[in-house]
């Protein structure tokens, strides 16, 4: 009995020491593409609310990775490449409100002698928290029983709400029951879940690609890809975009901040604080009764806005322009237009004495009508004061 115990202890020691001696590879600096602008513009919007990784941490992942796209020192194992892929995903995910989690599968000391291990319970996503979860994938050992990990994932996600993206990284040697377990995941969460797979293997293992393709197809909305297809910054950005984002409605810009989007703005340099019409043009028009230069109270708010515009835009030069309808003699109308301009200027100065340097007043008589003088409504539109801005 004592001899048997010594043999078992020796085997366990070899397993532990083999796990601890697995090399850690370093990879060239990865410069992730920034996807935040796509989201901020509205061109794309968030597609999933929960992101859950199932990582193959079985002994086959300790083999050297001989594919392309992940040159590391020392030569990386497939397990090291899996972790590097997750790191690159983490760097590329835009600023989204997510929950994220990680679970691994295999057996032996790397998984506390369990077939599956929850490395990161679903938590509010941040690059640091997800990075901690990746770091907890310390080594690979044992067989490849995917099923217990998927069953655990079903329970892990039970408290989540919204759409779920499940990502499986493996060389495709997943043990019996793997397809059935993913079908169970799909049946449990229905249209909420999409399954994505990344094959991290070598040429002689490409039968695993077919297995991972079948698993991704079960979800009906995910896809399968290869490690080398997500190696570059551009390819990784494309992968993250497809998993996390969907096409949205672009948010049109309003560069001058007047409340009218650029595509409809006929006056793209509106002064700060100015009232505008539906076409984005400053409308500050004061109308007068026939043969009068008295400002009607209904225009006080508009004139107060002109004062605000002057204060918000120092350095302006504004001409207060008086106009009349074509009724009576030209000389009389010229004087009337000047009185109207002076009356408005005086109102503005009474509310902002510092505006005197910005304002001049000029009458134009009946020479610049904006409507016909053949009808009363047309003549009413011509009896006005307008503002012309010189920057």
Number of strands: 12
Q: How many domains would you count in the coordinates?
A: 2
CATH architecture of the largest domain: 3-Layer(aba) Sandwich
* Helix and strand element order: HHEEHEEHHEHEHEHEEHEHEHE
- Distance N terminus to C terminus? 98 Å
Strand order of the largest sheet: 4-3-2-5-6-7
CATH superfamily of the largest domain: von Willebrand factor, type A domain
Biggest sheet architecture? 6 strands, mixed
The outline comes out as rod-shaped
Structural class label = alpha/beta
**Radius of gyration, whole Å:** 36 Å
CATH class of the largest domain: Alpha Beta
Q: What proportion of the residues form beta strands (DSSP E)?
A: 15-25%
Number of helices: 11
Helix content: 25-40%
**Mean pLDDT figure:** 90
Task: Summarize the topology.
Layout: H1 2-20, H2 36-40, E1 44-46, E2 50-56, H3 78-92, E3 99-105, E4 116-124, H4 127-135, H5 146-156, E5 164-170, H6 178-189, E6 193-199, H7 207-219, E7 224-226, H8 233-244, E8 245-247, E9 286-287, H9 300-312, E10 317-322, H10 330-351, E11 359-363, H11 376-382, E12 384-390
Parallel strand pairs: 2-3, 2-5, 5-6, 6-7, 10-11
Antiparallel strand pairs: 1-8, 3-4, 9-12, 10-12
């Amino acid at each position: 009995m004592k001899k048997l115990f010594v043999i078992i202890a020796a085997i366990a020691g070899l397993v532990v020491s083999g796990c601890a001696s697995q090399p850690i590879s370093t990879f060239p600096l990865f410069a992730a593409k920034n996807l935040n602008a796509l989201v901020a513009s509205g061109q794309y919007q968030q597609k999933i609310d929960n992101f859950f990784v199932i990582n193959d941490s079985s002994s086959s992942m300790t083999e050297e990775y001989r594919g392309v796209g992940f040159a590391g020192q020392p030569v990386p194992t497939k397990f090291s490449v899996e972790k590097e892929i997750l790191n690159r995903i983490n760097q590329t995910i835009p600023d989204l409100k997510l929950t994220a989690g990680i679970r691994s599968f295999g057996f032996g000391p790397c998984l506390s002698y369990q077939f599956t291990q929850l490395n990161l319970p679903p938590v509010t996503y941040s690059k640091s928290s997800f990075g901690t979860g990746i770091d907890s994938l310390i080594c690979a050992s044992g067989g490849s029983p995917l099923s217990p990990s998927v069953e655990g994932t079903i329970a892990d996600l039970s408290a989540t709400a919204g759409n779920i993206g499940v990502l499986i990284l493996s060389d495709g040697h997943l043990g019996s029951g793997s397809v059935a377990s993913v079908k169970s995941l799909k049946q449990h969460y229905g249209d909420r879940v999409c399954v994505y797979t990344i094959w991290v293997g070598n040429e002689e293992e490409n039968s695993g690609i077919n297995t991972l393709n079948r698993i991704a197809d079960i979800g009906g909305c995910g896809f399968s890809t290869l490690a080398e297809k997500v190696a570059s910054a551009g390819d990784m950005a494309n992968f993250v975009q497809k998993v996390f984002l969907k096409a949205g409605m672009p948010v049109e810009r309003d560069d001058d901040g007047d409340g009218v989007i650029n595509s409809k703005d006929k006056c793209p340099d509106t002064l700060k604080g100015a009232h505008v019409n539906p076409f984005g043009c400053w409308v500050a028009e004061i109308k007068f009764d026939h043969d009068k230069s008295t400002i009607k109270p209904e225009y006080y708010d508009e004139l107060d806005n002109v004062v605000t515009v002057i204060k918000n835009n120092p350095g302006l030069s504004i001409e207060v322009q008086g106009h009349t309808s074509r009724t009576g003699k030209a000389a009389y109308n010229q004087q009337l237009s000047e009185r109207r301009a002076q009356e408005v200027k005086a109102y503005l100065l009474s509310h902002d004495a510092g505006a005197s340097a910005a304002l001049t007043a000029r009458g134009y008589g009946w020479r610049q009508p904006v409507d016909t003088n053949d009808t009363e409504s047309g003549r009413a539109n011509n009896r006005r004061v307008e503002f012309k801005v010189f920057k």
